[in-house]
Amino acid sequence: MVLTADVHLPEDSELTVSEVHLSSSTLIAGSFHLGKYCEQANNEYMLCRLEENDPRKCIKEGKAVTACTMEFFRKVKNSCLNEFNQYSNCIDKSSGDFSLRQCRNTQAVFDKCALDKLNIERPAFGYFTEARVHDTKRPKPLEEPKAVYPDSTPELPENAEKKPARFGSRFYWMTE
Description:
mainly alpha; 6 helices; elongated; NADH dehydrogenase [ubiquinone] 1 alpha subcomplex subunit 8
């Protein structure tokens, strides 16, 4: 990737954040509750990425997602560690593809603990695919004006003669 001198790259200190060092089975075990717990931060980050189209402008939101994830797993560790570990180990050891099918009993135990002690209900199937309106405090970015190049080729006038293609249309499947 080629950069010019006017491109601002964030300093290392701006990017440094404590990482979430967890295994795949642990992340899968907590994924539904984590998604519900950090929904606001995740939606804010994804909205920023979509609107800004530049990840450098969304560093603050990305740090908020990581902080929320760390907070969630700390709460799970303090209140439902045994139930969570049983569920995570079941996911890890019961199949080669992290299937949840064999772990429904341990899942139910963890879900009950998360509901009782953390007040986080496991979202219903399809919850994360539902359309929602996200309310944000961040102002909408200004649209960049379309670039105008003074030496660009002028467009053909509307009344210019347009001859048919010499060898017929490439879109042979389209009929008039």
